[in-house]
């Protein structure tokens, strides 16, 4: 099966050959969702490839794209790969100060941006724009960027003719460079080959069990490898249907419209689903969970961070599988995945077919196989530190059960070491804390300190409900966060959540924050993992007060 395709583009060609008129993708144009067929998608990719080629883009060139999820993102990805060029997708939520070092590092031949908001990030950078042979915008602009108009009405091209136009890629040619810093450190350019992407897509598909009758609703950023492989590429490989959510805020309305059968999300999203049902008193109403997600949902998959046991159990008690997986950008990304036949609470499934996973003597997860990256772009030193004899060191601690289930127990790089020399895995504690309905986000602090503390972001709706039911006298949100009764309530909840842990893993002090951690503030990664250094810098005064 893993030799079925030589590239992701071959998947598009296969669909356009076997069922050209079948609906492939659904997008919203402002007045409702419309569909595009596999033939129309092929036509659009061919048109964009010609435009990029006309400005000098050829095999091996880097083409950077700064865009939100939209039809253009997918079409440009396919067009770039058809030329043998290297797609460098950059998260649209980043600031210009964060984007420019990535562009300077990868030296793109062309730059694609979505709209005028993204264009403004480059308006003061004439030197960068002068180095480009192509600069395109998907919408009308007043800048020097050319309009790259993508629609479903481009001139038709046969699959055979498109294949002849495609550059013949080798399996180990670089297909994409993805910049990732995880939760700490400077961004590193992960080089993934065509073999990496095709293998991981097909192995994930085999492990997960997608059907060509499925409809996927995508709302995770395609610039992140999780959505790119597990949403977009599995759709291409399977020949199912793919719908792009309008915004993060419209997801539930889009579910009602498109009635998806499959959803990929991060734990924060599934926690939100549970909270919504609880807030409306619908948690025990039959089919309420399924109806909130459109009524046709058959499976959900969670990745990017640890899924709480409470959320997992909530879904499974209501007969809707919530399947957890695990992976890294460096592994294309899937390492392990649950499915309907192999699913266990607290575990991230079993390793996908065709790869190896081991646990080292000190408990670190290592893996090797066709899913492992080629290395970091222009960074042989860090590559050598991360890869040893074909084994990738994940930086995560884990356990493998006798029957093959992988359990993630902590993050090596995020391990806290207290002043007493005690090791603490903060992610495990944070997962327990955010299991409580009153806590929507939490970050544990304590590296080099005498005791642990926590930054706590209350759930405003749950807290408001508690204040009302307990008749606590407060007149503002700010006053509530300082109220003695409220603080005692949170202290009791924190102690309850951590009651089964050792003494050195207890939270001695905490502070209730008046805002949450966000991507826009640089405190969360695009997959909603905590950027601990940024959070500690932004809340340094509050942290120091906890240790005063």
> In the residues, how many domains can be counted?
3
Spatial strand sequence of the major β-sheet: 2-1-11-10-12-13-14-15-16
Output the CATH homologous superfamily of the largest domain.
Answer: ANL, N-terminal domain
Distance between the termini: 60 Å
Question: Major β-sheet, in short?
Answer: 9 strands, mixed
Rg computed from alpha carbons, rounded to a whole number of angstroms: 24 Å
State the helical fraction.
25-40%
Low-confidence stretches: none
Count of DSSP strands: 27
User: What structural class is derived from the secondary structure elements?
Assistant: alpha/beta
Apparent shape:
globular
Give me the number of helical elements. 20
Instruction: Please indicate the percent range of residues in DSSP E strands (runs of 2 or more).
Output: 15-25%
CATH topology (level 3) name of the largest domain: Rossmann fold
Judging by the overall fold, what is the CATH architecture of the largest domain?
A: 3-Layer(aba) Sandwich
Would you kindly provide a brief summary of this structure?
The chain is α/β, with parallel strands linked by helices. Helices cover 35% and strands 23% of the residues.
């Amino acid at each position: 099966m893993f030799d079925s395709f030589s590239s992701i583009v071959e998947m598009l060609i296969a669909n356009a050959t076997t069922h050209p008129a079948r609906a492939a993708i659904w997008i919203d144009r402002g007045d409702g969702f419309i569909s595009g067929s596999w033939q129309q998608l092929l036509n659009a990719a061919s048109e964009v490839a010609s435009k990029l080629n006309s400005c000098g883009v050829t095999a091996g060139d880097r083409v950077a794209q700064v865009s939100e999820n939209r039809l253009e993102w997918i079409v440009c990805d396919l067009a770039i790969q058809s030329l043998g060029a290297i797609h460098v997708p950059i998260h649209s939520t980043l600031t210009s100060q964060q984007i420019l070092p990535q562009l300077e590092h990868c030296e793109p031949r062309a730059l694609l941006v979505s709209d005028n908001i993204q264009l403004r990030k480059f308006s003061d950078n004439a030197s960068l724009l002068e180095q480009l042979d192509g600069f395109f915008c998907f919408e009308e602009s007043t800048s020097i960027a050319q309009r790259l108009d993508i629609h479903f009405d481009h001139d038709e091209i046969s699959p055979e003719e498109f294949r002849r136009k495609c550059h013949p890629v080798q399996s180990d040619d670089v297909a994409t460079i993805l910049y990732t810093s995880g939760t700490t450190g400077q961004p590193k350019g992960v080089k993934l080959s065509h073999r990496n992407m095709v293998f991981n897509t097909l192995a994930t598909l085999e492990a997960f069990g997608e059907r060509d009758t499925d409809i996927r609703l995508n709302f995770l950023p395609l610039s992140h490898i999780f959505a790119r492989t597990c949403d977009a590429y599995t759709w291409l490989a399977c020949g199912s249907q793919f719908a792009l959510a309008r915004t993060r805020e419209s997801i539930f309305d889009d579910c009602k419209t498109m009635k998806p059968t499959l959803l990929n999300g991060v734990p924060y999203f599934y926690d939100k689903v549970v909270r919504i049902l609880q807030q409306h008193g619908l948690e025990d109403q039959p089919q309420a969970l399924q109806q909130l997600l459109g009524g046709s949902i058959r499976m959900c998959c969670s990745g990017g961070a640890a899924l709480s046991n409470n959320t997992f159990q909530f879904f499974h008690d209501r007969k809707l599988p919530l399947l957890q997986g695990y992976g890294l950008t460096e592994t294309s990304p899937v390492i392990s995945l649950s499915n309907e036949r192999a699913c266990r609470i607290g575990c991230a499934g079993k390793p996908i077919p065709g790869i190896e996973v081991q646990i080292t003597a000190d408990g670190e997860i290592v893996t090797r196989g066709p899913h492992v990256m080629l290395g970091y772009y222009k960074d042989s030193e860090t590559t050598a530190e991360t890869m040893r004899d074909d084994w990738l060191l994940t930086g995560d601690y884990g356990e493998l059960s006798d029957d093959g289930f992988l359990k993630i127990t902590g993050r090596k790089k995020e391990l806290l070491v207290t002043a007493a020399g005690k090791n603490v895995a903060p992610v495990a504690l944070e997962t327990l804390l955010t299991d409580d309905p009153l806590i929507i986000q939490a970050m544990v602090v304590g590296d080099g300190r005498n005791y642990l503390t926590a930054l706590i972001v209350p759930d405003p709706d749950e807290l408001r409900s508690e204040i009302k039911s307990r008749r606590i006298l407060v007149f503002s949100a700010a006053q509530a966060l300082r109220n003695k009764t409220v603080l005692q309530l949170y202290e009791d909840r924190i102690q309850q959540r951590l009651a089964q842990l050792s003494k050195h893993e207890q939270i001695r002090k905490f502070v209730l924050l008046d805002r949450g951690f966000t991507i826009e503030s640089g405190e969360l990664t695009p997959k909603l993992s905590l950027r601990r250094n940024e959070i500690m810098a932004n809340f340094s005064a509050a942290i120091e007060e906890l240790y005063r």
